[in-house]
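Subject: Sanity check before I submit

Could someone independently write out the structure tokens for this chain? I want to compare against mine line by line before I put it in a report. The sequence has 489 residues.
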Amino acid sequence: MTNPLTNKERTRLPRQQMPTEPGEERRYNFDEVNRGLSVIQAHTEALRCLECSHPQCVAGCPVGVKVREFVQLVHEGDYLGAAAKIREDNPLPGVTGRVCPQEDQCEGHCILGKRFDPLGIGYLERFVADYEQAHGGAAMPTKAPATGKRVAIIGSGPAGLSAGGDLVLKGHEATVFEALHEPGGVLIYGIPEFRLPKEIVRREIDYLRKLGVTFETNVVIGKTITVDELLGEEGFDAVFIATGAGLPKFLGIPGEHLAGVYSANEFLTRVNLMHADEFPDYDGPVYDCRDRAVAVVGGGNTALDAVRTALRLGASRTMLLYRRTRDEMPARLEEIRHALEEGVELIALTTPVEFLGDASGRLTGVRCLRMQLGEPDESGRRSPVPIAGSEFELAVDVAVVALGTGANPLVQSSTGDLRVDARGYIVADDETLATSKPGVFAGGDIVTGSATVILAMGAGRKAAAAIDQYLLGHGDNTLHAHTIDDGPD
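---
Independent answer below. Compare away.
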């Protein structure tokens, strides 16, 4: 079925808006905020595609989803075919359709976006993934003949999951090791329910299980077992390290030891792992936010996740302290808008200089300093400059520091011949993701530092392709010198 509209008519169609629960209602529950497009909305949005002969949206996707083809199938009403087309390159469409920063990737490259709103690629991806689930689940693709080769994957986050899916399709055995009791990594433990429901992650993992990926939980590589043991007595032919970057960063200011001060990692993991969203059926595993003032420090997606979670836990006041302005915030625009709709206060051009506590060692407030914007830094954003004499205090009962993460050293410290850079990240070849240790590959946040879900998935797919070549005797598994970056001094 061809698109009946001319290109000019397509540009006149407005981008379909994602239905959401009103902010004043959703702030009191953990239900998913975005409700998903209707069939009519999805069909209308698909009509907007210009069907470019050289689609730049594909170039903007880290896993190379064939956007034009899957959108055309949506337009034709073949939603299951559209889902299958996405799964040729992306084993987690229900996840990426929800949490991908499409505005910086596929949609950011959309030709429509030059003069109009870009095509709602993420919305359509989510639509077909949910349609697929509601109509029997994903069809199983054809797998290559078994090779007898075994690959150990350390970490069940997006990089590990995408690598596992690709490797089993290539005929290899893939076993994913997870330190906690349920696979999913950051998708399960780090992203709140209202943005990514756990059932979505679990159904995608079930799909990978049906493909043949094996999952082993409660295994801490570096403690329970080492990389050398995986390659030795455990009999694996290759190892892919995809542990992510889970070591929290702090401000380094007085008072961070006080009770009531959390890293965003700890705060969100406690909420997700220990069912804080199901109070009172589960007792609160974090310092009680109900009727208390909560301040979150940071301006990224994790900071938004933390402050919106605190709001839903019953905080009387939720503040986001950010040292630049809203325009410089790295968080997704949609997440910022949702937070403000829900009643989160953005206190911009502000940075904490000290956490204050009482005699019992519990947080009571935060001393802050006003900032002004100076010249652009390496990121292109204007640098925050302190304003002398501008200190002020805020009464705060709970504080969450969301300033990013660093490399957890557990696997590296237990693998002596694995090269790391000055920041503790594993050094891997740009193209093959091979490390300094033969048979060992690494990718995702543990190599690049904190990034997005889809970028980690792209690394997983790249690693799977390189591991496949290595196992078949076609890859050199060489860490090329030109790719080595020991980080800043």
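---
OP: Matches mine. For the report I'm noting this point. The two ends are 58 Å apart (CA to CA).
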